[in-house]
Amino acid sequence: MEHVGAVLLGVPYTLLVTVVALAIGAALGLPLALARRSSLAALHLPARAVIDVLRGIPPVVWLFIIFFGVGNQFVPLDPLQAGCLGLGLISAGYLAEIYRSGLGAVHSGQWEASDALGLSRTDSMVRIVGPQAFRVALPAASTYAIGLLKDSSVVSAIGVADIVFRSTADSRATGAALAPFLVAAAIYILLGTPLAIASRRMDSRLRQRVAR
Amino acid sequence: MEIVREPQTQAGDGAVDLRTGAQPADRLEVSRKGAPVVRLEGLSKRYGDNVVLDGVDLEVSAGEVVAMVGPSGAGKSTLLRCINLLEVPDAGTVTVAGQCVDAGKEVSAKDAMRLRRTAGMVFQSFNLFPHLTVLRNVSLAQERVLGRSRAEADARSMELLERVHLAGKADTYPSRSSGGQQQRIAIARALAMDPQVMLFDEPTSALDPEVGLEVLAVMRELAESGMTMIVVTHEIPFARDVSDRVVVMADGGIIEEGDPHQVINHPQHERSQRFLRAVTER
Amino acid sequence: MLANWLEWLPELGRGLQTSVLLALISVTVGIPVGLLLAVLVSSRRAAVRITSIVLVEIGRGTPALVVLQLVYFGLPNAGLTLGPFTAACAALALTTAAYTSEIIRGGLEAVPRGEVEAAQALGMSYRDTMRFVLVPQGMRIAIPALVGFGILMFQATSLAFTISLQELLSRAYSIGSSTFLYFQVLLLAGVLYLAITIPSGWLSGRLERRLSRHL
């Protein structure tokens, strides 16, 4: 099973891209979500447009725009940078929506109670609603993260040496057409399925401590 | 022995003899007053450490109307749901219209289905099928379970909808009807299967008191027509005026049973005294 | 830039057609299989249940890109050679089946338990309960999520670029590599994708609101 060795070389890159993209997305997603929830049209309309565009264009197309488009013509970017940036932006769009439903799922009575107690808007958000929203959003966010692990495979199309890239290269090198791809599939399943099961278990435990 | 009601000798009635699968012309054998339609022996059920039913025995005769009252968590609903095996007891036997199921042995889906054909159930939350019209709600099981033709089933459904005064709603969807109306439709749906016994699980608890009266009126008519009924309820006046026997349950067991006026006005057991006092002194 | 866009539009339009067609076929074939899997996953027979769960988890755990590679490059080894379009249809249909089976299962589980009990109390068999109560309502509940998934599948057609299918992205890339105006043409491709995904998203939202009115 030399194929396994060859394909495994791609795992660090897959993980790296996934983690960096998630970090960028988690950070950028929050201001986007808050802007989207804002009552000011000057904030929520552009935010909505940005989110729709980020989520409405296929990831591989975004990567091509950033790597071949921006990367070639404007700012030089290597495949890894382009991959992380592209997936990071897309993640920001999806996570913004996840944050938004998390915030929305918390019963409005919680805001009212905080107001009645005299807490400032910031305090209400940070101490009362935020933690509950986090609990609601976490399962959806972890489901997204696990999906991102698989979707990160698109970076192979712009040359990042991840699992899929390695399996394609190995297939061309050895002439084996089935095995390398089966190995790649197996690796993704072994990485993702335990995480998915853990995530589902966490989901049911978290559901209990939120006011809906 | 008195015969409670006219034998239903209409051809194509659809009632199936559960032992032989044949369709007898009359069901006098089983409907004679005095013969038990429902017999529960030694029913026990627990959820983890919580004992919900503690070796309960109950017998209901043909044409009898039994009201089951008691505090929440007493096990009344669980007992009722054991009769048609929506809950499977851990131990004991359930016999309905001659069909016996022993919970000690494996209870198969077939056993459960056979039992369910003899008992009709009305739920607290009505549980009508929202995606089907009222007529279809009442006809569907007649076609699929009793094998009646569409025309037969629809005719019977209309009869029953007339009986509960809702024939006009036949071609509408349940969401267009009020809670009380939906519950009456649910009663019609259960009656359409020609059950030997009707089980009511807190039928008016989800309804406004006023609206509950319409449903209780239909139940009263049903009782007067001779149907065997077991009703889990909080409606003490109904229990006192309509039922033949009141059973008081608490903590998984029957603590008192007997004549309605006796039990409700002069409860003997300390626990039933507490419960009934709380209900009557609101 | 606009002049170039107008020039490229017909060519990209053909690519868009291919992408849309691919998405529609994959979803039309995949969802019924997904429904079957959703029912099998709830089967009381352990052998059936476990096999279907394994199939679903494999289908969901493998990236669509890998499935595409497997079907197009790998299958010929096992004797089955498919052209790019057919291979893409097969691969995306398989992925659709696996994902939608979970969506539909969620829909089936969301049907109020009381209705299932009512059907049981009426003596209806498991099959009849599935057929008349659970599936009609479960599918209805699942429709918004299924439409959302359909939109994602449309986006996934861009992955077929890697198996030489002449869909939208590959055509845009060809134009880019001959004119070197990558940014402009890829941006146009992006706009064309948005032209489908954004209105679909709105429609899906409206559909969801309409459906929840009657339930």
How do the helices and strands line up, and which of them pair or pack?
The complex is a heterotrimer of chains A (212), B (282) and C (215).
Chain A: H1 2-8, H2 11-37, H3 41-56, H4 59-73, H5 79-105, H6 108-116, H7 121-151, H8 163-174, H9 179-206
Helix pairs in contact in A: 1-8, 1-9, 2-3, 2-5, 3-5, 4-5, 5-7, 6-7, 7-9, 8-9
Chain B: H1 28-31, E1 36-47, E2 50-61, E3 65-69, H2 76-83, E4 91-96, E5 99-102, H3 109-116, E6 119-122, H4 134-146, H5 150-163, H6 179-191, E7 197-201, H7 209-224, E8 228-232, H8 236-242, E9 245-250, E10 253-258, H9 260-265, H10 270-280
Parallel strand pairs in B: 3-8, 3-9, 6-7, 7-8
Antiparallel strand pairs in B: 1-2, 1-4, 4-5, 9-10
Helix pairs in contact in B: 4-5, 4-6, 5-6, 6-7
Chain C: H1 2-41, H2 46-61, H3 64-74, H4 84-110, H5 113-121, H6 126-156, H7 168-179, H8 182-214
Helix pairs in contact in C: 1-2, 1-4, 1-6, 1-7, 1-8, 2-4, 3-4, 4-6, 5-6, 6-8, 7-8
Essential attributes:
heterotrimer; A: 212 residues; mainly alpha; 9 helices; B: 282 residues; alpha/beta; six-stranded mixed sheet; 10 helices; 35% helix; 23% strand; globular
Task: Describe the 3D structure.
Chain A has about 210 residues and is mostly helical. Chain A contains 9 helices and no strands. Chain A has helices at about 1-10, 10-35, 40-55, 60-75, 80-105, 110-115, 120-150, 165-175, 180-205. Chain A is flat. Chain B has about 280 residues and is an alpha/beta fold. In chain B, the strands form 2 sheets. Chain B has a 6-stranded mixed β-sheet with strand order 6-7-8-3-9-10, sandwiched between helices. In chain B, strands 2-1-4-5 form a 4-stranded antiparallel β-sheet, covered by helices on one side. In chain B, helix 4 crosses helix 5, helix 4 (about 135-145) runs parallel beside helix 6 and helix 5 packs across helix 6. The longest helix of chain B is centred in the C-terminal third of the chain and has 16 residues, at about 210-225. The relative contact order of chain B is 0.15. Chain C has helices spanning about 1-40, 45-60, 65-75, 85-110, 115-120, 125-155, 170-180, 180-215. In chain C, helix 1 packs antiparallel against helix 7. The interface of A and C includes residues 55, 58, 70 and 178 of A.
